[in-house]
Amino acid sequence: ANLLAMTAKPEFSEDRVLFIEFAVSWPELTDPFYLANPVENGNRYTWYQVFGAPDLYENGIQAEDALDAAAMEAGVLAALEVDPGFLIDVGADLSGATVPVGVTLSAPEPIDLGGTSLFIGLYEKVVTIEPAPGLNGQTEFHHVFRDQADSHAQPGFIDPGMPTTIVASVNRGAIDPDNLVIIAFVQRDSDKVILQGGSTAVESVHP
Question: Are 160 and 107 in contact (CB under 8 A)?
Fold first, then answer.
């Protein structure tokens, strides 16, 4: 509920902030979102070392209190003040069940992205399940992770005027293309900090 309220505020619109929600196998062993892709959901919560749910990460860093809405918004606003030094644009062909994706990284000044990985994934915007699949009564779910690229590319050095384009694919299956978003973000391997992101939620505005 806190995340959904946050997305409705203009300062946290999709051209500024990306959201994605991974599922864990507890407290409901039959969680439908976890079971839809247990291996990749498991890979992500293992990567973040999640031991309880809900758990909230801002730019890859764990929030002290996942339910503190004011602290969450303040943390994201502070992160938005940091210039990452490069841009990410995401393009995808959503016409088929397998979605080819092109992620372009560009920078106005030379930047070394050594020691980072590029995550490319797909989430479903809104999923409604009746009756509620869990004990908390929730029937509407947002930013639901569905699939990720099979491997994480290492971007390396980005030269001004020479954008780097990385291609991959994700599987949308039977998801309505109007109800999905492809996202990409560069994450530092050593401390999990996310440096920059992009998505198909907004039209590319960078050359």
Answer: yes
Q: What span, in angstroms and rounded, lies between the C-alpha atoms of 204 and 117?
A: 21
Cβ 90 vs Cβ 183: under 8 Å: yes
* Each residue's pLDDT tens digit, 96-112: 999 999 999 999 999 99
Give the Cα separation of 199 and 103 in Å (integer): 9
Two tokens, residue 35: 């079971």
Q: What is the DSSP string of 58-78?
A: ETTEE-S-TT-HHHHHHHHHH
Residue 88 tokens, joined? 């990410």
Residue 185: burial class (beta carbons within 10 Å; 0-12, 13-18, 19+): buried
Burial environment of residue 41 by CB neighbours within 10 A (0 to 12, 13 to 18, 19 or more): buried
Specify whether the CB–CB gap between 19 and 122 falls below 8 A: no
Question: What is the identity of the amino acid at 96?
Answer: G
pTM for the model: 0.94
Order of strands across the sheet with 116-128?
140-148, 116-128, 180-188, 194-199
